[in-house]
């Protein structure tokens, strides 16, 4: 804007030589021209800035989608994995506790009672008088050894004559039973492992809602 | 019939100067629409936006790292409590 600067300086000199009202009129014409000149320059600058900004936004939009998107994806996976690890830790804890119960190492629980209750539930759900039962090797032996007592107790508690057949086909599980009627149309799945899976599935939501929300930054 | 009043020479001169100022400004302002100038502004804005994006990425990472840290530091007693509840439900009739 050197041209404008020179004009401003010259204008001051000239204005001192002329008299009012001419002086005011000249001043007005020149200062309006300077204002307009500044506006022209500012408007071009703004236009250039807008063009450059649009180009930058196109580039940054892609870059942001890629880079920020990748970081978010990676970190979300890490967060999910951290939560999954917690769930796994809880699951391992439950398995340890159940193993102790099954082995008779937890004085708060009597595994024989747990087995009996599962048998009773099986009889009630299958609702027949002859029930075929499978368990793991250890429990099969135990159930066979207590068969007569079990049958009497079940018959007495349920109020009808119940016949239990302990099958010599052990299943692989931590504990519990699988029971069925004679033709196998009605089956009761009561293994400890199966119950753990089912109950744990239900707890995943509770753990997510209660535990993770409590400790997550996003409350 | 109206007679057009002749403008004072000083005013005429002022108008000429004014026109010159405006046409000079028009000429001068053309440089702002040149590729060189636009590219220069582009580079400036781009580096600002890249810095902003870098900061945004860092903040996002920090935000998730903090959440992960908090999840990983859930006290064992809390997990034990939940494990105990689940165990009870598994063995209850």
Describe the fold and architecture.
The complex is a heterodimer of chains A (219) and B (93). Chain A is an alpha+beta fold. Chain A has helices at residues 2-17, 22-102, 111-126, 137-145, 147-158, 192-215, and strands spanning 130-134, 163-166, 176-180, 187-191. Chain A has a four-stranded mixed β-sheet with strand order 2-1-3-4. The longest helix of chain A has 81 residues, at 22-102. Chain A is rod-shaped and about 135 Å long. Chain B is 81% helix and 0% strand. Chain B has 93 residues and is mainly α. Classes of the chains: A alpha+beta (219), B mainly alpha (93). At the A-B interface, helix 1, helix 2, helix 3 and helix 6 of A face helix 1, helix 2 and helix 3 of B.
Outline the secondary-structure elements.
The complex is a heterodimer of chains A (about 220) and B (about 90).
Chain A (H helix, E strand, L loop, with lengths): L1 H16 L4 H81 L8 H16 L3 E5 L2 H9 L1 H12 L4 E4 L9 E5 L6 E5 H24 L4
Parallel strand pairs in A: 1-2
Antiparallel strand pairs in A: 1-3, 3-4
Helix pairs in contact in A: 1-2, 2-6
Chain B lengths: L8 H21 L5 H38 L3 H16 L2
């Amino acid at each position: 804007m050197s041209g404008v600067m020179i004009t401003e300086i010259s204008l001051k000199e000239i204005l001192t030589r002329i008299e009012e009202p001419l002086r005011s009129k000249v001043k007005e014409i020149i200062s309006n021209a300077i204002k307009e000149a500044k506006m022209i320059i500012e408007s071009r600058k703004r236009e250039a800035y807008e063009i450059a900004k649009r180009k930058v936004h196109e580039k940054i939009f892609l870059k942001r989608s890629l880079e920020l998107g990748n970081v978010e994806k990676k970190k979300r996976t890490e967060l999910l994995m951290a939560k999954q690890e917690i769930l796994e830790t809880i699951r391992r804890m439950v398995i340890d506790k159940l193993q102790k119960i099954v082995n008779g190492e937890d004085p708060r629980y009597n595994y024989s009672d747990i087995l009996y209750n599962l048998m009773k539930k099986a009889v009630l759900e299958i609702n027949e008088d002859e029930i075929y039962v499978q368990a793991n090797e250890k429990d099969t032996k135990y159930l066979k050894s207590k068969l007569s007592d079990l049958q009497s107790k079940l018959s007495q508690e349920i109020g009808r004559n119940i016949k239990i057949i302990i099958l010599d086909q052990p299943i692989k599980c931590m504990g519990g039973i699988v029971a069925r009627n004679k033709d196998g149309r009605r089956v009761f799945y009561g293994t400890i492992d199966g119950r753990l899976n089912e109950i744990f599935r239900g707890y995943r939501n509770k753990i997510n809602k209660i535990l993770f929300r409590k400790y997550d930054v996003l409350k | 019939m109206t007679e057009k009043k002749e403008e004072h020479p000083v005013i005429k001169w002022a108008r000429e100067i004014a026109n010159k100022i405006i046409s000079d400004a028009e000429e001068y302002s053309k440089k702002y629409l040149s590729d060189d100038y636009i590219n220069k502004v582009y580079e400036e804005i781009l580096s600002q936006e890249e810095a902003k994006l870098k900061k945004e990425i860092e903040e996002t990472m920090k935000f998730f790292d903090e959440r992960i840290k908090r999840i990983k530091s859930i006290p064992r007693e809390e997990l034990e409590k939940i494990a105990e509840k689940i165990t009870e439900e598994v063995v209850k009739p």
